[in-house]
Structures are given as C-alpha cells and as structure tokens.
Amino acid sequence: MPSSVFRPMLLLACALTTGSASRALFAFTSPFASIVVALIAAMLFLFISFLLRRRLHFIMALLIAIAFIVGAASADRAMERAQRVSVSLDTKAALACRARVIRFPQIKSWGTRVDVQLDSCSEGKGDRFEPAFGAVRLSILHGGDVLLPGDHIQFRARFTRPRDYRNPGAFSYARYLAVHGIGATGRVVGKPELVQEGAGFGRIVGGLRRRVRDSLAQVADPARRGVLLALAIGARDDITAEQRDRYARAGLAHLLAISGLHVGYVALLVFLLARVFFGLFPRLFLRVPLQRLAAAVTLPAIWGFVALAAFPISAVRAAIMISVFLLGVLIGRRQDLPTTLAAAVCVILIILPLSVFDVSFQLSVVAVAGIMLLVPRIARALPAGRMRTGRALRAAALLGAVTVAATLATLPLVAAHFQVVTFAGLVTNLVAVPLAGIALVPLVAVAQVVALIAPAIAAPIWSLAAVLAGALDAIASAGARWGDALVFRWAPSPLEAGGVLLLIAAVVFWPHRTYKRWIGTVLVLVCLAGVGFAGVHMMEKPSLEMVVLDVGQGDAILVRFPDGSDWLIDGGGKRYGSFDVGEKVVVPALLRLGVHHLHGVVLTHPHHDHYRGLGAIARAFQPPRILTNGLDAPPQEKGHWARFQAQLAELSVPLEVVPEGKTTYAFGGAQMHVIRLPWQAGDDLNDSSLVVDLRFGAHRFLLMGDLAETGEGRLLAIEGDLYADVLKVGHHGSIDATTPELLSAVDPKVAIISVGENPYGVPHAATLERLGEAEIDVLRTDEDGAVAVESDGERLFVKSLTP
User: Fold this and answer.
1) In angstroms, what CA-CA distances link 498 with 328, 422, 494?
2) What is the distance between the alpha carbons of residues 486 and 250, in angstroms, rounded to a whole number?
3) What value does the mean pLDDT take over residues 435-453?
4) Cβ–Cβ < 8 Å for 290, 469
5) Is the dihedral of CA 458, 463, 464, 466 positive or negative?
6) DSSP designation for 677
7) Which residues pair with 107 in a beta bridge?
C-alpha cells in the first residue's frame, strides 16, 4: 500500500480507536465535558497545523474531535464491564469462595496483595458453591506470598467496592482498579487454601522470578537491593516510602519501575548484540540483512523480559510499540516515528482499551509525541559536530534536548495527575538516564540471564550492579536535597492544562510571519485570560469559606478567610496500614482548591484520625504553627505520635499549646475563636477537643471536633451564646455526642458529619434521628463527598464539591 494512503488511514484508525475512551484524560462524568475537551483538543491541533502549514494535522484535529464525541458513552460501558462482580459487597459476613490467581502477588510489609478471578462462592454457611464471576484484589495477611498465576485457591473474605475520596483533584482508586480489570477488593479471613497448583507458563515464570530474587539476596544494602529488584523483575516491595519520595523529588521516579524506558534499553542492547554476533559470520547470513536477523532475535527477547517483570502494563505497552517497529523492519518497510506511534496506539487500545485511562499510558504517548516534535527542531538549531569533541558535545546536547522535550510535553499532565512539577529532573536525568541506560540496565539484564542459568556465577555481576545502583541512589539523594527549590506544587484544571500545552506549542512553533505571530499571541492571551478568570472572579468579594473534606473516618477542614489566609482544622489519618491520608487525599484536594500555603493548623486533639495526615501536609505547605491542646496521644498510638512529632521537628513546625478558655484570631473582618475546655486525667480524650468558632458578618460556624456528651456539657456551661448557622457534628455523629441540649442551644440550619466506612456504627441512628426531628439539613462526607459552606457576611451558600 502506498505510504501516502497508508499513513492517513493508520492515523484515522488511531483517532477512531482513541474515541472509545473520550473521557480518559480527566475522567469526565458528563458528555458535555467530553465535548468541551474535544473542542479544546481540536483547537490545539488546528493551531499547530496553522503554524506548521500541514493539512494532515487539520484533518486529524477534526477526526479526533469527532472520535472524542462519538466515544463518550462507550468509555462508560467499558468501565462498567470491568467493575462487574457477582458477589455481595460491603457486607460484614465473610463469604467462602474459590478463585484462580491471575497475577503475581505484590508482597507488602503487612502481607500480600493478590488479584484473582472468581470461580464460585457460597453465600450461606453450607458448602454449596454457586458460579461467580468478576476479578477481585485480595489482601492476605498470611500465606499469600507463595501463590503464582494459575493457582486455584479457596478462602473466606469480606468484599467491598473500592472507595474513592470524593474531593476536588481526588485520585480515583476504583477507576485505577478498573483499568487493571479489577471490580472489587476483599480482605481474606485466615489463610487461603491451595486447591490446585497452576501449570504452564505462569508457574515457569514464577520460578524464574524466584531464582532472580534469591540470587539478589546477597546484596547487603537494602536500598541498592530494592533498586536492582525493581529493575530486574519489576518488584518494588523492598523500596521504602522515603526512597520512593527521594526519587520523585529528584525527578527520577520513572527509573524505579520497568517502563518504556527500560524495555527500550533492553531492546536496543539485544538488537546491537545480535547485529554484532551475526556480523561475525558473514558467509552464513549473507542472504538475510543483519537488521532483520537482529529484529527477529529482539522480538522474543523483549517479551521474555516483560514476562519476567510480571507483565506490568506500562512495559506491555512499550513492548507493543517496539514490536510494531521491529515488525516493520522484518517485512522491510521503512519506519518513521509518527507512523510507529500511531500504529502502536491503535494496537494497544484494541488489545487494552482501558489503557487510555492509565496515567502511564497518557504520559508515555505524550512524551514520545513531544520528543518527536521538539527534538528535530532543537537538533537543527545545534551546530554540526565536525571534530570528535564537537560530535560528543552535540550528542550530549541532543540527550539534554530529549529530556527537555519529554519534560515540557508531559508537564501539564504530570501536574494534573500528581499536583506537583519538578524541574530538578532536567538536570538529574542528564546524568541518571545515561548511567541507567548505558550501564545499569544492561548489567542487570546480563545478571538476570546468568542468574537463571548459573546463580553462583551471577554474584560478582550483581555486586558490580549494586555499585551502580548506589551511584544512582546518590544522584537521587543529591537531586532531592538540592532540587527542592525546583519543585512546584500545581493542580491545574483540564482547561488550564490545555492552556499550557497551547502556550508551549505557540512558543516552540513560533512562525516567522508577522501576522501569524499576532494571531498566535492573541490565541495564547485569550486562553490564559480564560484560565485566570476563575481566580480573579473569586477575589471580587471577600468571603469566609469552610470546606469539610472527605477523608474517610476522620476530620480535615479547610477554612479560607476574607483576607486570603488559609487554615486547616485537623488532617485526617488511618490507624493501620501505610496509606497516608494527608499525602494522598488532603494535599491534592488543597492544591486543587488553590491552596499553596497554610497560614496555620488547628489539631483539635491527638487521635490518629486527626493528626496522622498532618506530617505530609506540613511538609507540603509549611505552616508556621500547629495549635494543640497540649496533650499526648493515647499509649496505643505512642509510635505514630512520636513519628509525627519527629516529622514536625525536622520541618521546624512548632506545636503551640492554646491556653485554657477562648483565644481569638482576626482575619480581615472574620474571627476564629479557639476554645479549650477544662480537662482532667481519666477523662475521655475526645472531650479534650478544641472547639473552633468561626464568625463573619451575620453568620457563625461551630466546629465540635470529637467532643462528646461530657465535653458538650462543659461547653454549654462556659459559653452562654452558642447559636450558629452551621454545625460540624462532633465525634462523627456518635450516639454520645450532639445531645438534645446542644442542638437546642446551637439551633443550626445545616449540620455536616465527617465520616467514612467504620466499624463503630457512626453516624448513629439516634443522632440522625435527633437532627431530623430538629429539621436540620444534614450533609455527610461519606454520601455527599467534600462539602463547602460559604458566607459573604449576608448570604449563606452550601454545596457538595463531589467531582
């Protein structure tokens, strides 16, 4: 087929295929939003085509816009199919089930996470199993680490629907699982029973992975061993949270996962070695071009590498993309990067249609497109290297250009998904990527092969690789230490992200003709003006705003005062597990709400669901102080409390004890009264909660912390006037809080309950009944998501911020 016909058809197929996930980039929930994004994408493509004078780009812009709109409904249907599970969810009773393991276990500090496909389940107490369907992610405390894909197991588990924290800028765990084909989660009771061992490919690969892991046990340094395990078999179990954070702040997080970069390096290594090997025997391989022979050897090699890494989706996509290129080499077809990228995207979305919801897919495609468009322009601007030194400098400059191009192209997406942008990677990648690609990854690949054949001989190779891993770790440490000034927290909306891409396109493809410059400038200014309109609109009139965030079972409340001061009341937190509510939930929500600095924090009392998230929040927003009641956490939380205090000491954030009684703070016409009640040893720690009283104009908000009946009685005795328009219900709506006496004194119009899934039975039915009898409008974070209440001093506005 002629290239002039083949390429447009290929790009058309690609556009129509991507249309099946029209809401993928930001997971919109309405067709209208999908149409808006389609129009923004069309405008961007039209602008680039105008600057480049390429008619094909114009056609592609229209096709992609049409594909986005047509595919609006099909993305939802694909998601629904992935989330279908036949068992009862969110029940207290454990169900007996039989299932087949479909992926390699993820080993955690607390146990094992295993994905299974349900075969049958017993809903009752008997042994009668009925057919079941759906994929489930199991959490197993004991006995899950020995399982392999293909194993059939029997277990008892409680199943739940994955819960999302419904805040602005929230990460959707349910959507993340659906991308991986998982519809529910389950917690196994006891130890699973192995009914039948799997056979075939999964068990063979599992044995090979164990052999590589065992051969790496000799590396004494856990940090270096963790890096080598991640590069060898994609296992990041030995990488600590501190190490992961260090690599992220240095802009090197992509080196800790087997992604397209690593697959590309392995493919290049095998391809070059194969060419050299076949070149040694010219008489034997005279009739077949070396390129085709090398491609034929590289294809199975890269898929073997991906299989050993347990088929991570990012590596599978990279392998598909490289396979498309290699197949072109095998059939003797001349390849170019745009055609290869378009064909690979088509194949990936046909095989894995929900990949377009995955962040790594979006980033990899955008990065490759950015490199494809930007690097040639930079290369043309560089002087030709005639001497050996000049050629070396030019090669180094091109490597830097690749890093800059990928960083600029992905910047808006990285900010939209992770709410942080680091430019430290522009420097660290110039050193770390060549070290990893030219030395470390090839050495790890060689060590893997040797470990599979003769584990004893692999020892010196692993030792050398450990030295290089230590050097990589040192680069990450230096980048994190010196690059903090280059880390910016930003949570753009889809419109803002599109505006930045448009700005980058305008600067890079700046035309020479004057009238085109003027048109480009006007388009950019219009876009930036639209982005800034919302922020300017918010500043038109001062107001007091309170946002009760959805942090599950806990409290985290943002208060925005008329003078622009932002305060946080509590930071959420979980008692068990490594999930940091502050880092994963509160920080992204605050950034999306436009908070870049906290002027202060109030910790109502030292319980885990109020303080455990504050460490990450303090690191992100550097508040000058945290107001407390001066008490320590209970003995069972001693370790968590000590770590929290150590975090604050490291950040130089003081805990400031509020004096007993009422302390008043003024912010541009609004007041915040912090009330510390008398408390004695032996009292319930909940009754030590600080009470926050917010006032602005004619309105008053009363935040009760976890105050229970005894504390409420003391508050009523001390404060004569407690009338408030809005009541943040105390102790998550428990039966021992929000007494009739308090409700009579406060007489609120609106009551907000901060609560999540919990074993305590809150909010209690009796509390909800009391609120209903008083004819108070009740909003709950577990049902309504984040709740915002705003007052301009005269009018009161209440709304849910559920995205």
Assistant:
1) 34, 19, 6
2) 9
3) 85
4) no
5) positive
6) -
7) 112
In the chain the first and final C-alpha atoms are separated, in Å, by 47
Instruction: Determine which helix (DSSP H) or strand (DSSP E) holds 135, and give its type and residue range.
Output: strand 135-140
257 φ/ψ angles, rounded to the nearest 5 degrees:
-135, 145
Q: How far apart are the C-alpha atoms of 412 and 356, rounded to whole Å?
A: 17
- Could you give the angle at which helices 31-52 and 55-70 cross, rounded to 10 degrees? 180
8-state DSSP, 732: G
What are the two backbone dihedrals, phi and then psi, of residue 40, each rounded to the nearest 5 degrees? -65, -45
If you average pLDDT over residues 175-181, what whole number do you get? 81
Q: Give yes or no for a contact between 533 and 558, defined as CB atoms under 8 angstroms apart.
A: no
Q: Could you give the CA distance from residue 774 to residue 746 in angstroms, rounded to a whole number?
A: 11
pLDDT in tens, 578-591: 788 998 899 989 98
Q: How far apart are CA 643 and CA 640, in angstroms?
A: 5
- As given in the structure block, the two tokens for residue 123 are 């809903």
Least confident of 55-59, 598-602, 650-654, 694-698: 55-59
Handedness of CA 545, 417, 226, 405 (dihedral sign): negative
State the DSSP string of 340-387: HHHHHHHHHHHHSGGGGGSHHHHHHHHHHHHHHHHHHHHHHHSPP--S
State the pLDDT confidence band at 688, using cuts at 50, 70 and 90: very high
> Token pair of 677, please?
């009640």
- Tokens 């043309």, residue located: 380
Tell me the β-bridge partners of 514.
none
Q: For residue range 601-642, what is the model confidence (pLDDT) as tens digits?
A: 999 999 999 999 999 999 889 899 999 999 999 999 999 999
Cβ distance 222 to 109 under 8 Å? no
Helix (H, G, I), strand (E, B) or coil at 712: helix
Bridge partners of 585, per DSSP, are none
8 A C-beta contact, residue 316 and residue 324: no
In DSSP terms, 626 is beta-bridged to 601, 655
Q: What is the DSSP letter of 748?
A: -
Which of 168, 27, 28, 83 lies closest to 785 in space, CA to CA?
168
Contact call for residues 559 and 568 (beta carbons, < 8 A):
yes
- Dihedral of CA 118/103/163/554: which sign? positive
Give strand pairing partners of 800.
787
Complete DSSP assignment for 467-512: HHHHHHHHHHHHHHHH-GGGEEE----HHHHHHHHHHHHHHHT--S
Is the CB of residue 571 less than 8 Å from the CB of residue 611? yes
Quote the pLDDT of residue 711.
Answer: 94
Residue 78 CA: distances (Å) to CA of 71, 177, 196, 350, 356: 11, 13, 32, 12, 11
Place 75 in a pLDDT band, splitting at 50, 70 and 90: low
What does the alpha-carbon distance between residue 58 and residue 218 come to, in Å, rounded to a whole number? 58
Residue 91: what residue type? T
Q: What is the token pair recorded at 245?
A: 């954070």
Give the mean pLDDT of 653-675: 95
Q: Which residues pair with 796 in a beta bridge?
A: 791
Neighbour-count burial for 437-465, b at 16+ CB within 10 Å, e otherwise: bebbbbbbbebbbbbbeebeebeebbeeb
Name the CA radius of gyration of the chain, rounded: 29
Query: Coil, helix or strand for 795?
Result: coil
Q: Is the dihedral of CA 416, 422, 423, 425 positive or negative?
A: negative
| Sign of the CA dihedral with 473 first, then 477, 482, and 488 last | positive
User: How many Cβ atoms are within 10 Å of 521's Cβ, its own excluded?
Assistant: 12
Q: Beta strand 135-140 with 184-196: parallel, antiparallel or unpaired?
A: parallel
Largest CA distance in the chain: 101
Distance separating alpha carbons of residues 504 and 162, to the nearest angstrom: 37
Mean pLDDT of 90-104: 87
Please report, as a single letter, which amino acid is at residue 353.
P
Residues sharing a CB contact under 8 Å with residue 197, sequence separation 6 or more, in sequence order: 148, 150, 151, 203
Q: 2: pLDDT confidence band, cut at 50, 70 and 90? A: very low
